[in-house]
Each structure stands twice: as structure tokens, then as C-alpha cells.
Amino acid sequence: MGLEWWIWMGGFFVFTIFSMVLLAKATQTLPLGTAYPVWTGIGAVGTVLVGIFVFHEPATFWRLFFISTLIGSIIGLKNTFIIMTQFRNMRRKRQQLSNEESLQKELESGFSRMLIIRFDIGHLTGKEAIELVKQKNPKA
């Protein structure tokens, strides 16, 4: 085991740790089912490219074709997650707006009843009730 072997092993361990740190960082924003396949795909593509450019392995048509499909799959998997996240957020916003609108309608219909109840049990004078109605609905 000469110096060259130790250099390759040192580089391997440094890049392995660096790669694991980046995978851990990616799982903070991506689900593991997306982050791990993307991580392994990038590793596979990187390994093939190092083999071709550093070790002068053959770059045949079929090898480049399948590496291209792997890259396309990685991009598709990542973009699918992004699109689904955007769709889910839009649906949540729409549901939240719907909930706010129904709450607003309920408050508006319940507001008059609340004033009547408070007026009936003596907590409001007629003048105070009218002022509250005017504050709630300036057109009144």
C-alpha cells in the first residue's frame, strides 16, 4: 500500500463525509424518498463521469444514453416533488380561504344575534348596539 493508495482512500473518505452532510441537509427540505434516490443517482453519474474522464473508460453510445436517462430521471423525480409541493400549498391556501369565508359569513350572521342577546340581557344599551352595528357594517 503505497502513497497513491492512501491519497485515494483519503479522498474517498473526505468526499463520503461531504456527501453524507449534503444528504442530511437535503433531507431537511426534501422527503427521504426523494432525497436518497437523487443522492445515489448523482453519485452514480459522478462515478461514471470520473471513470470516463479520469480513467479513460469507454464512452459508448449506450453508456451515455443510459447515463442521460438516469440524469433525466433524477431531474424528473426532483421536479415531481416540487410540483406536488406547490399543488399541496395551493390546495391548503384555497381551503384556508374557504374556511375564512365561511367563518366570516358565520360571524356576520352571528353578530346580529349576539347584539340582540347582549341587548336583551342588559349588557348593551340601544345606542351601543347601534354603534356596534355601524362599526361592523358602515353602510347601515
- Strand fraction equals under 5%
Report the uncertain regions. none
Instruction: Give the CA-CA distance, first to last residue.
Output: 92 Å
Number of helices, counting only DSSP H or I runs of 4 residues or more = 4
Give the helix level as a range of percent: over 70%
Instruction: Compute the CA-based radius of gyration.
Output: 32 Å
Mean pLDDT: 81
Compressed to H and E, one letter per element, the order equals HHHH
Principal-axis shape equals elongated
Main sheet: strands, sense, barrel: none
State the total count of DSSP E strands: 0
Quaternary structure type? single chain
Structural class: mainly alpha
Write the layout of secondary structure elements.
Layout: H1 3-26, H2 32-53, H3 61-120, H4 126-136
Task: Give a short synopsis of this structure.
This protein has 140 residues and is mainly α. It has helices at 3-26, 32-53, 61-120, 126-136. Helices cover 84% and strands 0% of the residues.
Explain this structure:
Helices cover about 85% and strands about 0% of the residues. It has about 140 residues and is mainly α. The chain is elongated, with a radius of gyration of 32 Å.
